[in-house]
Amino acid sequence: MSVDVNEYLESVLTDLGVCGKFQLLFYCLVYGSMVPAAFSVLMMAFGGIEPNWSCYWLSKNGQVVNITSQMMCKPDNSTTEAVCFSKTFDSSMSTIVDKWDLTCDKEWIISTITTIQLAGLLFGAFMSGQIGDLFGRKPTFFVSFIMLFTFNLLAAFSVSWQMFAVLRFFIGIASGWYLTIYIIILAELTSTKYRSGIVAFPAWPIGTMIFGLFCWILHDWQSIQIATAILCLPWLIGHCFVPESYRWFVSRNKVNEAHQVLIKIAKLNGKPPPDFVKLCDVIAMSKTENTRDRKHTVVDILKTKHLLKDSLLLNVCWISCGYGYFAISFGVQQLSGNLYLNIVLLGLVDVVQILVSFIANKIGRKRTTFIFFAVAGITGIVVGILQFLDLNNKGQLVNGFAFTSKMCVNSGWISLIILTSEIYPTVVRNVGFGLNNSIARVGAMTAPQLVFASKHIPGLSYLLLGGLFLLSCICLVFLPETNRKALKDTIDENEEL
């Protein structure tokens, strides 16, 4: 009789309870750890803000030019060639801009540091998957927080922008490391029935809102860096409770260790532990019968016509999400009104993602993604056009459409994650998902540069955002629809690609 070890392990987890004391403690710890991670990724949304500044000018012959200009790199309304000899920044906030005077000819450094950080995010995500498979989910999760604590604390005491940039790269690695292993450890200790809901839980938006509140209270980039490091400490202590993935133990033939994890879950949930002998027998039989245990790679996707087509279409969608999310987040200074309130609101609108799983189950994954992408694209283009117009209520209109676009970008991304995971066959699902996740990071890396360019070409970043998401809608039309909620995934490990 054929034995499906994955089905058996799934049934064991379900029998131990899916909404017990273990899940409550486990989700609180893992979701709570998202707060310092969100702080780490989004710090440059505040830290890269250019405070208001003014300049007093000195002529070439050493005479004072009696002109004060507000945020002007050259003296306004003057025929005298002069240089700025005294620059005064607004004291209501402190960012890396006033710390190292990153204005005018040094303005490019801000977006470059952010891009360097996002490059670290890409590198960290790649490393985390490999290290998590080799050494286990729990130690990888733990190391990510040691890195976040260490590099955020060091970054607070940077003596130059070059040192700060290097540390932001390592913070990016730690963040990408965490965000990858965070999803894996959640998925492997959550029943299939609740997995899409777990993915859609708005832990990141909550972290974003808390970040905005901290910025509001502290007003200082260095204090925020230190606060981020301190916020890592509770989750380092809580790491003692988070168990290793029993599925990883099974994959490493450590059946006794897997059983101990299951006993711990059973004890907390007040359920009888699974039978150790049966667990050993099922795993042994599975290894005997699954003779075709070939490892699949990206090459399998590239050489399979329909998977290559689907992957290219998905790549466009993922790069749009990566670009769109961070273009709006790091372009928060382009919005009108209170900066700190806007950061909070950008997180608040993302809470809508909690409804994505429900909507996707009702009308389908592809249709849900299409609707969110279409609205994101249209509202993005509207914001871009508004930047060129001179209207009385321009600020309120820009904010309203920008917040709507951000909400739809984020919710569409959540729906796309579900769609992507179900389009790929079981044997290449992790490979396909990792490929698209990497593509999204490439899109994110371009976002700071386009936000910088938008200072000189108003609306550019939003117009590109709108165009990318409308293009993604066209790509979605040619992708297959899936509904794994209604259909049991019966694809075995040896299915044909």
From TrEMBL:
Localization, per the record, is: Membrane
Question: For this UniProt entry, which segments traverse the membrane?
Answer: 24-49, 108-128, 140-159, 165-186, 198-219, 225-242, 312-333, 339-358, 370-389, 460-479
Listed PANTHER family: SOLUTE CARRIER FAMILY 22 MEMBER
Under what name is this protein listed?
SLC22A4_5
Gene Ontology CC annotation, any one: membrane
In its keyword annotation, does this UniProt entry include Membrane? yes
Protein's membrane topology? Multi-pass membrane protein
Q: Which UniProt keywords apply?
A: Membrane, Transmembrane, Transmembrane helix
Please give one Gene Ontology molecular function term for this protein.
Answer: transmembrane transporter activity
Name the Pfam families for this protein: Sugar_tr
For the Major facilitator superfamily (MFS) profile domain, which residue ranges apply? 40-484
| SUPFAM superfamilies (UniProt xref) | MFS general substrate transporter
Gene3D superfamilies (alphabetical):
MFS general substrate transporter like domains
